[in-house]
Amino acid sequence: MNKILTVSQAAHYLHVVPDTIYRKARRGEIPAVKMGKIWRFPKEALDQWLNETALNAVKKS
Q1: What stretch of H or E contains 52?
Q2: pTM confidence score
Q3: Are 41 and 31 in contact (CB under 8 A)?
Q4: Are 37 and 5 within 8 A, CB to CB?
Q5: From CA 56, how far away is CA 54, in angstroms rounded?
Q6: pLDDT tens per residue, range 4-55
Q7: What is the SS3 assignment for 12-24?
Q8: What are the sequence ranges of the domains in the chain?
Q9: CA torsion, points 11, 16, 17, 19, in degrees to nearest 10?
């Protein structure tokens, strides 16, 4: 089952403050869906994004 996270849940999951989540979502830097004024984050998409970001960081070093 796909889990959908709120801004607060996504911030807690990624260990950042909610403002960081909002900023990255507005810039299109993290996978997110905006429904009206509310942002939602598919957990599976966040996991995939996190893995790809980590892999790219390792490749650059």
Answers
A1: helix 43-60
A2: 0.87
A3: yes
A4: no
A5: 5
A6: 999 999 999 999 999 999 999 999 999 999 999 999 999 999 999 999 988 8
A7: HHHCCCHHHHHHH
A8: 4-60
A9: -80
